[in-house]
Amino acid sequence: MAIAVAVLACNRRALNVFLDVPEPESGPEATLDPALADASLPQAVADTLRPDIESVADPDSVIAILPKDNAGNIDWVTALRAGVIRPRAAPPGQEPKPSTEGFGFDFVYQAETATFDTYFPHSTHVEWLGCESCHPAIFPYRNAAITMQAINGGEACGECHGPVAFSAATCERCHRNMELPAGRMSPALIGDIVFERSANMGFDLPPARFSHWSHRIRYQCKACHPSSFEMESGANVVTMAMISEGESCGACHNGTDAFSSGFGECNRCHAPEPTASPGE
Ligand code: HEC
Ligand code: HEC
Ligand code: HEC
Ligand code: HEC
Ligand code: HEC
Ligand code: HEC
């Protein structure tokens, strides 16, 4: 424990130097709990070692393979730790951003009653997400004021928890002292995006669809966010011309790293039905 504290202190000092983070002020602040830090998470694994799940295309089979949490939702964190998925850190041909090692600190926000103490594992999040997805877009480094009302309204933690990550209904994953019945939800592959922003220019095609599950199995969030896509539905301009030129979806959908956007492939994206099962 003493060692963990020392390492943590060192990290925080390093952070202050590198990121110009102000020293903590007095007043309400997140407490760092070294006992909750998990140093055993795997680093991004070599591109060559691909897990079996990547060869499974049927959503129900994918759901069956992925581990579940207490509530019954898909547990993507356990999937990562157990090596069921090994999402790459960068799009094909690009270097991953420098390692996030050293940011393995976790927070506990203390509530008036311990039941509602909130666990925020910073460590788990930087396994997939780039810093700029949260700082400063969603959270300041210190003294973030977060409420359940904001989360339920799709802000703060709710920017991801609900649309793409487990929803606010799964209280016990953030409020770890809460005891709720196990297996009360059905696992669902959430995060389908329907592109309905451009006119189809005379082509009789359904709107293009993008499912998060099929991509997060293979790529970390930071391979796409925010460099290629703003993390907001409807915020990005995508055209077929961009895709053909290797931009946007075309960074991967080039016929080598993923199916191409040429004739014969159109309906793989312009599909009439969502590919994922509906969210809760
Ligand atoms: C999922 C969102 C998210 C991501 C991604 C994220 N952070 Fe944070 N970070 C937070 C939150 C929330 C806090 C706590 C803010 C508060 O309540 O005061 C925090 C706090 C911090 C702090 C202050 C720690 C202290 O000593 O009090 C630093 C420094 C920090 N983050 C750096 C980073 C860096 C560097 C990265 C990328 C490697 C990163 N964060 C990625 C959400 C995130
Ligand atoms: C930028 C997106 C994003 C934001 C913002 C975010 N999370 Fe997460 N979080 C994720 C993803 C992705 C996972 C992986 C689980 C999943 O997808 O269902 C996750 C997992 C978790 C886990 C499970 C960790 C584990 O070890 O099992 C907890 C707890 C959690 N988040 C709490 C929070 C809290 C509290 C906040 C706000 C302070 C927050 N998250 C903000 C994306 C986000
Ligand atoms: C994604 C993580 C997450 C989930 C899931 C979640 N909460 Fe919260 N909750 C938070 C955060 C973050 C806070 C603010 C912590 C702080 O600043 O003290 C909070 C605060 C609270 C508070 C304190 C009062 C308030 O409104 O701010 C209560 C009560 C609460 N949550 C109940 C629940 C219940 C009940 C559920 C399930 C229906 C739930 N929460 C699900 C993250 C979560
Ligand atoms: C292969 C690229 C890719 C990956 C990987 C990816 N996303 Fe996305 N994400 C997108 C696209 C494309 C959109 C839709 C943008 C638009 O509509 O303009 C999106 C939208 C979102 C949104 C907004 C959803 C909404 O309903 O408003 C969130 C939140 C998000 N992503 C979070 C994540 C998280 C968290 C991860 C990692 C677990 C992740 N994304 C992984 C491409 C990706
Ligand atoms: C990799 C996925 C993907 C494939 C494959 C694909 N498209 Fe698209 N297409 C998109 C996306 C995403 C958009 C943007 C839609 C929007 O923003 O509303 C789009 C937009 C379009 C548009 C609107 C105008 C424009 O040029 O952007 C047309 C027409 C279109 N696609 C036709 C096709 C045809 C024909 C094919 C097969 C030759 C095809 N698409 C294959 C993803 C794809
Ligand atoms: C970082 C790389 C990457 C980006 C960016 C990307 N994809 Fe994919 N996508 C893949 C890979 C890899 C597969 C799986 C391999 C295959 O099917 O060829 C896939 C599979 C798919 C599938 C079939 C699986 C399913 O969900 O039904 C669709 C549809 C799809 N992508 C649409 C899109 C659209 C639309 C965009 C842009 C908004 C996009 N992708 C951006 C890499 C990417």
Quick take:
This protein is mostly helical and 280 residues long. The protein contains 10 helices and 5 strands. The protein folds into 2 domains: 148 residues, Alpha-Beta Complex (Cytochrome C3), CATH 3.90.10.10; 78 residues, Cytochrome C3.
Give structural notes.
- With 280 residues, the chain is mainly alpha-helical.
- It has 10 helices and 5 strands.
- It has 2 domains: 27-174, Cytochrome C3, CATH 3.90.10; 192-269, Alpha-Beta Complex (Cytochrome C3), CATH 3.90.10.10.
- It has helices at 2-19, 59-65, 76-81, 122-125, 131-134, 148-152, 171-174, 212-216, 240-244, 266-269, and strands at 31-32, 107-109, 118-120, 192-195, 208-211.
- Strands 1-2-3 form a 3-stranded antiparallel sheet, with no helix packed on it. The protein has a two-stranded antiparallel ribbon with strand order 4-5.
- The two termini are 40 Å apart.
- Helices cover 22% and strands 6% of the residues.
- Residues 128, 159-160, 163-165, 193, 210, 212, 215-216, 219, 221, 223-225, 229, 231-236 line the site of one heme C (HEC).
Summarize the topology.
Layout lengths: L1 H18 L11 E2 L26 H7 L10 H6 L25 E3 L8 E3 L1 H4 L5 H4 L13 H5 L18 H4 L17 E4 L12 E4 H5 L23 H5 L21 H4 L11
Antiparallel strand pairs: 1-2, 2-3, 4-5
Bound molecules: heme C (6 copies).
The site of one heme C (HEC) has 24 residues, from strand 5, helix 8 and helix 10.
Structural class: mainly alpha
Quaternary assembly: single chain
N-to-C series of helices and strands: HEHHEEHHHHEEHHH
The Cα radius of gyration reads 20 Å
Q: pLDDT average, as an integer?
A: 82
Helix content: 10-25%
Question: How many DSSP E strands?
Answer: 5
Number of helices: 10
Taking the alpha carbons of the first and last residues, their distance comes to 40 Å
> What best-fitting shape do the alpha-carbon axes yield?
globular
